Amino acid sequence: MKLAFFDTKPYDKPSFDRYAKAAGIKVKYFEAKLNEDTVELAKGHDAVCVFVNDTVNAAVIDRLVALGIRIVALRCAGFNNVDVKYAFGKVHVLRVPAYSPYAVAEHTMALLLTSIRRIHKAYIRTRDFNFSLVGMTGFDLHGKTVGVVGTGKIGRSFINICLGFGMQVLAYDKYPANDLAEREGVRYVTLDELFEKSDIISLHCPLTEETYHLIDNETIERCKRGVVILNTSRGALVDAEALLSGIKSRKIGAACLDVYEEEADLFFEDFSGHILEDDTLARLISMPNVIVTSHQAFLTEDALDNIAETTVENIVSFTEKGECPNEVCFRGGVAEDCKNGKCFG
Ligand code: NAI
To answer: Can 274 be counted among the known catalytic residues?
Structure first.
């Protein structure tokens, strides 16, 4: 089995080398992202391994099929960068449904605490021996209301952390979880109520047509003045222009973003010596109450190890048994995890 590994970063290699070697998989690492221009690099391989900002659209899928490649192994949970509808019956799309919800949930809380307690400002001040506290006033999380959109693995983990801080949780999910609804301190509400009553809103739902620009001018209008917006899910859940307007008008008190709608050509790369062309991102970053991290919420040693282990297991399962429980199935017109191991049509 030969695997073409796209969008490689130095931190990917140690864990993948370890698990792939044990499974007898030969990995060729490419720094390039997979897209229509780079797909030829996959020639001579049996499978491709891709990450969040690789592009697996119809043209790429057609070329992979022409190259005899039938396995697209995602080393992430989200698959909004894959045309799963088009892929159905052509290539098997395997993913890593859970590798460490704690990594993302903990990073979300780290961003929130950094922002509201001004840790990012304090770090810079004290390095300059400026020990003034002026402008550093924050607020307690205890007793505040957090609205959590999406109560799957990461949302649930974040809720647990928030409950530990003594916060009240308003939850919204398309498919509410009965056990969570019974937890003290958690209440499922409509999206409208969540927007109206939350001091902090954290997004943990997938990016779909339904959730695209969930946070826009209209929803921001319905929020409390001073609301803190957290997005560690997918960039396009938030209309970045609307977010910027909300920050300028002081309606939004703070925003913490690990993802950004136009991140594909920026995040994971060093642009420190360049002039940033994206004015919206540059303006957001210039704000004292906005914190941006570059899609690093997943990046813990534990998560990297789990990602490599499951990705390799997925490929082995497919090549040996012809099926994999982590295949994204489009049977029935809805993308979901394969239930019967026969997703290929
Ligand atoms: P999950 O599948 O366990 O949970 C997603 C939840 O969203 C489910 O409960 C589902 O019912 C709900 N949902 C679906 N459609 C919805 C809608 N229209 N409105 C409200 N809720 C809806 O997924 P998990 O593992 O919790 O991941 C959540 C998201 O986090 C992923 O979709 C991915 O985009 C993002 N993510 C970000 C990472 C990062 O490094 N920043 C790393 C891993 C995931």
So the answer is: no
Domain that holds residue 252: 101-292
Question: 77, 189 in Cβ contact below 8 A?
Answer: no
Q: Is residue 211 lining ligand 1, measured as CB closer than 6 Å? A: yes
Whether 121 and 55 share a structural domain: no
Residues 93 and 106 reside in one and the same domain: no
Strand 145-149 and strand 252-257: the pairing is unpaired
pLDDT band for position 338 (50/70/90)?
Answer: low
Q: For ligand 1, what atom is nearest to the CA of residue 258?
A: 41
Q: Is 200 found in the same domain as 151?
A: yes
Q: What is the DSSP string of 31-63?
A: SSPPSTTTGGGGTT-SEEEE-TTS-B-HHHHHH
Q: Does pLDDT of 333 surpass 80?
A: no
Q: Whose CA is nearest to atom 23 of ligand 1?
A: 152
Ligand 1 atom nearest 232 alpha carbon: 41
